[in-house]
Amino acid sequence: MQSAVRTEVISKLRQFVHGEISPQDLHRYVRGRSCRWLDDLLEEIRLTPEDYSQIALDKVALGVPVSAYIEGICQLGDLHEWALEAYRIFGTNAYAASRAYNPEVESGLTLLSLLCGLEYSETEEIARSCVLRIHDALENGRAIPARGILRQLLMKKSRVDLLTREMGEDLNEPWRERQWAEIGLAPSSFSGSGEAVSEDCWFLPLGVCTSDAWNLGGPNESWTHPENDQIFTLRETYPGFDFEINSPSVFIDPDGLTEVILDVPCLGAPELRSAVHLFAMVHRIRCCTLDRVLAIPSQEDL
Predict the structure, then answer these.
(1) Same domain, 166 and 282
(2) In terms of domains, do 126 and 178 share one?
(3) CA distances from residue 90 to 10, 25, 253, 280 in whole angstroms, order as listed
(4) Among 154, 186, 204, which residue terminates a domain?
(5) Per-residue pLDDT tens over the stretch 205-215
(6) Which of 39, 53, 74, 294 counts the most CB atoms within 10 A of its CB?
(7) Alpha helical stretches, state H, the chain
(8) Does 262 map to a domain?
């Protein structure tokens, strides 16, 4: 792509994320560049880490469309459209490698993309209450409470449907199959019948792995320290539940995503259901399925 054209495209992307042009304006520009979708344009231009420094989406810019929705200037669907397009721009490895990278901005975009789509939050009342927490944090210069917001969303849903998105092996010992799994949140339109479409589950609130895989490749950060293991709280909350099975550990990362570690040689369906059971306990989920099989704590446990 020629330098002048590339500069123009980056300028247009910056205008969009800073609220100077609408998603509709961006769509018209994309079509004018002979691209059907924004993804096509992004594939053509291939943004570099330096480009993201020029586009410069920060918490102030993130707060502009959020405030517009809270103040009634735009509708929830408008905020959702903005968040989805911004997530397409910034949900890349190049952004994560750039000097402009802000994990809180990335987390905010992910939350907005999830919350504002009624296929996940189910009602605008639930969506608005969660978006309001993001707005208050941005307005007052506080960290976005991603953990609390995600838990609030999951607790309020009438049913949480999960699908196994991907299962993998330990790269250091490929013969040891199914050392980890990624579990995706299915949209509310998921009917529970027909073939699972796990690739549609772009939001992955639960990761599961064996203790061997975790010890070899798990993150060594403050949230993974033993004192932050949620299993201790669960033991107190559910004294009648047998937590000795698979010797689990449960951690929640700063974005509110749950990691369940099981002391088993490999993962199969029973182990995944056990992990989802713990996930439901942690987030006080009333009804939860995994791959169309009910996996919820019994009423006496709740």
Answers:
(1) yes
(2) no
(3) 13, 19, 20, 30
(4) 154
(5) 999 999 999 99
(6) 74
(7) 3-17, 23-32, 38-45, 49-55, 59-70, 76-90, 93-96, 103-115, 118-121, 124-139, 146-156, 211-217, 231-237, 269-282
(8) yes
